[in-house]
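Saturday, quiet lab. Running sequence design on the structure tokens for the scaffold JK sent over.
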């Protein structure tokens, strides 16, 4: 088995082992697992059955990650994208009044278009066109974005009317998060194998213990984490193959489909380039390795999302956690994908992993994703300003898409103002046009 896997994934030349890849896959899975519950909770607001979307989410997570691992042989986990699921629910269904079945048809059609664009290498050219300074800024921006999500998930950072955000106070969740952050940081500093997984497990155990003691002692009115009441849950097919393609193939659906294409395009490319940059899975020109196959796997994910019954799938920023754990090949993505499959029947068990246990990992991954900033030439202001905007706007707007498009728009404007139009890749003008459409129509 070891020789077979080495031959398929070239483990030796990638300086990794089966054990490392498995640990990395488990880490990626644990940091992504929340989507199995969060995605149905968001799409439920569009009138879709929670249990049906949960089953669809598991299908997309599993088979999309398997496709990324087997076809592209890259360590990226794939799942329904956060942000685009909100766009699906609040913009398409609730905002435009589109039936969720028709919206799923639009997801399927947009996936097919993505596959065509990937086959013709249009998406590849888009990635190659993005300047290296912006790619580095995006990678670091995603790191801050991940850390920001971690802090928000545990109430360390909360909304504030006067200052927009502020410290949430020293409560039990913040204390547990801090303990988990210290434990995981210590393990990482010591170079412990499986540091992230051990950190998640240790913080989960601490949370269960604190919850039990707190409720018994009376200083907690409700448990912090609830152990599942049941183990098995049969999958629901209530949204499976329920897409309305005919309804989506109308004149009135051109804008919604275009909207999906634009939002998914910027989100997936921004995430993919950022994570690849951090993982050093790029060539000498900074272009992500096997990009054609990776984008095809990503397009495949969007297509099966419509079939399964959920919003489009995309490469996940949380993949950086598994990569930091040492994952370098498709075996990492395969392990992560396979770990989702049991939750077709064991979904209640996901409630056992509290967000306070995964938040420290997100913060630490954010730390490691800062290194690409060192590759930005800060003395060249023409390059530094767009890179900085991509870096800072991703977390501040809570959108990878906004960070990407503003970095590129300002880059183009600066080059044109400086009389350096020849330095602008022709594909950048195409991207800028779609970006302006997106901003003008408030997509």
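Result came back. Writing it out in full:
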């Amino acid at each position: 088995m070891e020789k077979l896997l080495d031959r398929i994934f070239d483990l030796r030349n990638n300086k990794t082992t089966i054990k490392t890849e498995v640990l990395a896959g488990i880490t990626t899975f644990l940091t992504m697992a929340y989507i199995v519950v969060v995605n149905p909770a968001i799409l439920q607001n569009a009138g879709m059955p929670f249990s049906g979307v949960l089953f669809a989410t598991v299908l997309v997570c599993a088979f999309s990650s398997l496709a990324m691992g087997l076809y592209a042989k890259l360590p990226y986990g794939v799942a329904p994208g956060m942000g685009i699921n909100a766009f699906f629910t609040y913009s398409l269904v609730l905002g435009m009044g589109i039936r969720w079945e028709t919206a799923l048809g639009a997801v399927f059609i947009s996936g097919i278009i993505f596959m065509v664009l990937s086959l013709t290498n249009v998406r590849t050219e888009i990635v190659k066109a993005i300047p290296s300074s912006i790619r580095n800024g995006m990678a670091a921006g995603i790191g801050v974005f991940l850390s920001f999500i971690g802090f928000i998930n545990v109430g360390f950072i909360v909304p504030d009317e006067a200052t927009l955000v502020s410290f949430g106070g020293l409560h039990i969740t913040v204390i547990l998060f801090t303990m988990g952050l210290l434990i995981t940081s210590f393990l990482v500093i010591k170079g412990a194998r499986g540091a992230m997984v051990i950190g998640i497990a240790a913080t989960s155990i601490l949370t269960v213990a604190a919850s039990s003691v707190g409720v018994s002692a009376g200083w907690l009115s409700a448990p912090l984490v609830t152990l599942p009441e049941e183990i098995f849950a049969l999958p629901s097919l209530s949204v499976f193959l329920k897409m309305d393609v005919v309804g989506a193939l109308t004149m009135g659906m051109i804008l919604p489909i275009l909207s999906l294409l634009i939002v998914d395009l910027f989100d997936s490319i921004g995430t993919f380039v950022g994570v690849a940059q951090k993982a050093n899975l790029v060539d000498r020109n900074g272009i992500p390795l096997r990009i054609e196959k990776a984008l095809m796997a990503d397009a495949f994910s969007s297509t099966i999302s419509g079939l399964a019954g959920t919003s489009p799938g995309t490469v996940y920023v949380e993949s950086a956690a598994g990569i930091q754990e040492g994952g370098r090949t498709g075996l990492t993505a395969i392990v992560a994908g396979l770990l989702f499959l049991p939750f077709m029947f064991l979904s209640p068990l996901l409630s056992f992993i509290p967000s306070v246990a995964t938040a420290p990992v997100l913060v630490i991954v954010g730390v490691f994703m800062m290194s690409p900033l060192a590759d930005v030439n800060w003395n060249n202001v023409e390059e530094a300003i767009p890179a900085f905007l991509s870096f800072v706007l991703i977390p501040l707007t809570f959108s990878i898409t906004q960070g990407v498009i503003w970095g590129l728009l300002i880059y183009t404007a600066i080059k044109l103002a400086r009389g350096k139009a020849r330095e602008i890749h022709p594909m950048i003008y195409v991207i800028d046009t779609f970006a302006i459409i997106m901003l003008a129509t408030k997509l």
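Notes for JK: The mean pLDDT is 84. The chain has 20 helices and four strands. Ask whether to fix the surface positions before the next round.
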